[in-house]
Amino acid sequence: MNQEGLASYTLRRAAGGHGNFARVLVGFPQNAPDHINLSGDGEPVTQEWLDAAYDGVQYAKETLNRADKVLPFCIEGSLADTRIDTIFCAAAIATSRLFGENGWTEFFDGEKWIITNLDEKSS
Questions:
Q1: pLDDT class for 23, splitting at 50, 70, 90?
Q2: Which of 17, 52, 85, 107 supports an S-S bond with 113, CB 3.0-4.6 Å?
Q3: What CA–CA distances, in Å, run from 52 to 1, 56, 58, 121?
């Protein structure tokens, strides 16, 4: 588990003919930074972005079989390069790193970003 009780992940790559960007900071409620910034990078965070971050956190918790309360503390994006799938992936990977899982990464399947675990062995 992350010693500071905080973890972040940035997805910043070109795929599908355009740039993709999202940065999400997650953590345990007791480790909340002094200033929680849900409107990072100057762009207002929409309800869709916030929902995507919570969905990414929940996905990671369910996949890792964790019941800990984890919250997004900062969501950064841009109107031009940030989509729901980029935020979902950044939040999920940040949450996995919070729990010490470092093998998760994002993969663009031609339409959207999805999560893959590089640590899983093929049968």
A1: very high
A2: 85
A3: 23, 6, 10, 28
